[in-house]
Design goal:
- By secondary structure, this protein is of the alpha+beta class.
- Helices cover about 20% and strands about 45% of the residues.
- It has helices at about 15-25, 80-95, 135-140, and strands at about 5-10, 30, 35-40, 45-50, 60-65, 70-75, 75-80, 100-105, 115-120, 125-130.
- A 4-stranded mixed beta sheet has the order 1-4-3-2, covered by helices on one side. The chain has a 4-stranded mixed beta sheet with strand order 7-10-9-8.
- A hairpin with a 2-residue loop joins strand 3 (about 35-40) and strand 4.
Length: about 140
Amino acid sequence: MPTPFHLAVPVRDLEEARHFYGGLLDCPEGRSSDSWIDFDLYGHQFVCHLDPTLGETPRDDCRNPVDGQGVPVPHFGVVLEMADWDALVDRLTAAGIRFEIEPHLRFAGQPGEQATMFFRDPSGNAIEFKAFRDIDGQLFAR
C-alpha cells in the first residue's frame, strides 16, 4: 500500500470547513485546535488551517488547458475507485455543489482515460476527484 500524503490548505472558517469536509465529503475528523483541523481524506492526512484573511471571495486561480477544459491551478484531490467516484458525484449533485468542471470522461479512448470533476470548497480551494477503470494500468499511462 502506498504511504499517505499530507496536505494543508488555508480556510476562512473552521466550522465551515468542518461542515464541508467532515459533513459533505464524509471525511472523518482527527485532531484539531482553535486554528486547524485534521481530516482523513480517503486515507490521507488533510489539514485545514484557519486563515481569516481569505474573506468571502474565493481565490481566482490560473487555469491551464487540459483536454479542452480550463483546469484550475493549483488544485488537489484524490484518485478514487469508479464506484466511489460515482457515489461522490451523486452526493455532490444532491447537495447542489457548483462544479468548476462538470463530472465527465476525460481523454476518452486514449491512454489515461479518466472520470474527473472539479469544484471548490467554501474558501475557494480547487478540488479534483478522478477515477480510472484500471487505476494501476491507467494512472500514469503515456
